[in-house]
Amino acid sequence: MEFPSLVFLFSLLLLLLQFPPCRSSYHDYQDALTKSILFFEGQRSGFLPQDQRLTWRANSGLSDGWMYNTDLTGGYHDAGDNVKFGFPMAFTTTMLAWSVIEFGDMMPSSDRRNALVAIRWATDFLLKMVSQPNRIFVQVGDPNVDHSCWERPEDMDTPRTVYAVDAPNPASDVAAETAAALAASSMAFRSSDPGYAETLLRNAITAFQFADNYRGAYSDNSNIRDGACPFYCDFSGYQDELLWGAAWLRRASQDNSYLSYIENNGKTLGADDNINEFGWDNKHAGLNVLVSKEVLEGNMYTLQSYKASADSFMCTLIPESSSSHIEYTPGGLIYKPGGSNLQHATSISFLLLVYANYLDRTSQALNCGNVIVAPNHLRLQAKKQVDYILGDNPKGLSYMVGYSNYYPQRIHHRGSSLPSTKDHPQFISCKEGSVYFNSTDPNPNVLVGAVVGGPGDDDGYEDDRVDFRKSEPTTYINAPFVGVLAYLAANPNIS
Questions:
Q1: Strand 135-140 vs strand 84-85: parallel, antiparallel, or unpaired?
Q2: 459 flagged as catalytic
Q3: Bridge partner list, 200
Q4: Burial class (CB in 10 A: 0-12, 13-18, 19+), 491
Q5: For 419-427, which contacts have Cβ atoms below 8 Å and span 24 or more sequence positions?
Q6: Percentage of the residues of the chain whose pLDDT score is greater than 90
Q7: DSSP-assigned letters across all residues of 458-477
Q8: What is the mean pLDDT of residues 71-79?
């Protein structure tokens, strides 16, 4: 009787080996949360502190701002390059802060502390960006030259051009997103550092005044366009950022003037437009979810159109809904064309969880016409996206670097792919790095917690450093993921 059972066990083992090791219904969300925050230390620019945990990084960009006789050191590189783009950095900061506001109480104290450190690394820099009257700095580094090099941040010898917008030239998008970031961050710091929180809120108000007084897109300025475009042009218009900034100032300050701004400017600033997008360029879906909190908890009937738009957006994400029209890959990942797709999956998952909580707290459900959707169903949709990213996908691959034993080894990231200054202290010039870029070897430095751009619409992913649309991590992919993982780490058994 023992022999057949051994055959059975051997056959079962062979069957199991056909599947990659990451494919599992269980994920360590707590581990993923810790690593998602750690990632930001790999993106730091400036003088690194003694407690820097990703020790293959070192000081960089220490002369940033010299051409304006201004200290513009610090902040984050947005992705795998060495430029500091203010627009996506501000959005990243807003989302990190929103993650702490909504889900910080669910984080272990060490993760919450490190999340606040990650926020402050950005806000300290954003405060410098708005430190001069009637001027906002929007970018440091010439991206065209930077992108022609494959160079460690520590070796940068490309022009650290400073891009600034002076009144009355417009920069509504960057200034209003900066206002949102500072306002949201003031809430995140309110209990632990009220003095810093007050500084953030005061500067948020000033940044918003600049945004509203001089209306227009920053990338329409001729002296900015060549630096911002085609990388972080304002493609969707600046109007959504004005409403988004006002909504965050309303939430942070409880000042009714911002409530009136949202009420009175909604139509003229296109609050009903493009409701199915949320990311560094288009804030509409996030704006509607954020403002819906006022409606759900305060009976603000004058803001009902924002909640209606939020409901409409959520219904598009529910496969059972008659209004469902979002595209999914065969493996179940939310997909939007254009590259760096996981930014959509993480930001939309964040909104699903936040809106589910807003509905839950007010004992409401989502009416999608042909189906009534309970808050937990929204959470389940978010969990499916997270599980896909962490390994439950046709490739069996974790798209978070350093999570599980099977993750991308050749990400499109200069600091990760070049030997560290500790291992190779000699200077590596602009073109000398090409040999590392073109190498098929795994990156020598593991950028723990980085979430890459992700697979294509067919779930396909080649571990290829050259394919930046799929293999490059960004701060704005990770920022909303911090909040999502915090929720799932505390509530792993959604069903």
A1: antiparallel
A2: no
A3: none
A4: middle
A5: 419/444, 419/445, 420/56, 420/57, 420/58, 420/152, 420/444, 420/445, 421/58, 421/152, 421/154, 421/155, 422/55, 422/56, 422/58, 423/56, 427/155
A6: 86
A7: TS-----TT-HHHH---HHH
A8: 98
Rounded CA-CA distance 357/300 in Å is 18
Nearest alpha carbon to residue 448 among 397, 386, 399, 401: 401
Q: Coil, strand, or helix at residue 163?
A: strand
Q: Which of 412, 423, 432, 441 is catalytic?
A: 412
CA distances from 395 to 17, 127, 328 (A): 14, 43, 16
The per-residue DSSP string of 57-120 comes to ---B-TTTTGGGTS-----B--SSSS-EEHHHHHHHHHHHHHHHHHHGGGS-HHHHHHHHHHHH
Angle CA 414–420–422, to nearest 5? 165
Residues with Cβ within 8 Å of residue 211, at least 6 apart in sequence: 171, 172, 173, 175, 176, 179, 238, 241, 242, 245
Structure confidence at residue 16 as a pLDDT band (50, 70, 90) = very low
> What pLDDT was estimated at residue 25?
55
Identify the helix (H) or strand (E) that includes residue 247.
Answer: helix 239-253
CA–CA dist 249, 253 (Å, integer)? 6
Report the predicted TM-score, pTM, of the whole model to 2 decimal places: 0.94
pLDDT grade for 21, boundaries at 50, 70 and 90: very low
Q: Give the tokens for residue 195.
A: 């003095």
Q: From the candidates 41, 392, 459, 472, give the one annotated as an active-site residue.
A: 472
**Predicted local confidence at residue 274, as pLDDT:** 58
Reference 93, options 275, 301, 244; nearest CA is: 244
Quick one: pLDDT band at residue 58, thresholds 50, 70, 90?
A: very high
Any bridge partners for residue 136, and if so which?
A: 165
Domain ranges of the chain: 22-490
Residue 165, H or E segment: strand 162-166
Active site residue: 457, 463, 464, 467, which one? 463
For the question of residue 284 being annotated catalytic, the response is: no
- Annotated active-site residue 51? The verdict is no
Phi, psi at 474, each rounded to 5°: -140, 155
Question: For 22-490, CATH number?
Answer: 1.50.10.10
* Secondary structure of residue 40 in the 3-state scheme: helix
Structure tokens at 181: 């970031």
- Longest distance between any two alpha carbons in the chain, whole Å: 88
Closest CA to 432 of 209, 204, 93, 149: 149
Residue range 299-339, pLDDT digits in tens: 677 899 999 999 999 999 998 888 888 899 999 999 998 88
Percent of the chain with pLDDT over 70: 94
Query: What are the Cα distances from residue 113, in Å, to 100, 120, 127, 247, 447?
Result: 10, 11, 20, 26, 20
